[in-house]
Design a protein that fits this description.
Elements lengths: L1 E4 L1 H8 L3 H12 L3 E5 H13 L3 H14 L1 E2 L4 H17 L13
Parallel strand pairs: 1-2, 2-3
Helix pairs in contact: 3-4
Amino acid sequence: MKYVLDTNIITAYLKGDGIVKQRLQEAELKGGEILINGISYYEIKSGLLAINASNRLEKFEPFCRKFGLLLLDSQEIFDTAANIYANLKLQVSRARNIPHVRLI
């Protein structure tokens, strides 16, 4: 199974969240492929650099090397994500709004 980590999960890991660490270990033990979303990498790296969070940066770099990056390198990926979001939004009744969801 493949797992793609988003910004919230990576941030929780860097802050020492025990549940996140445990789930990542479980996924590894099951042979899962764990990747970091390329956009999340950018968001976290730029945020940590902006606040000069050297301790978390020291954890982040080996974390990225361990799991690797999933790079979104084509317009097709963004088009597919946009279509999925639009289709989901159309399926929701007008009485209920779908929350903003990041698909990429």
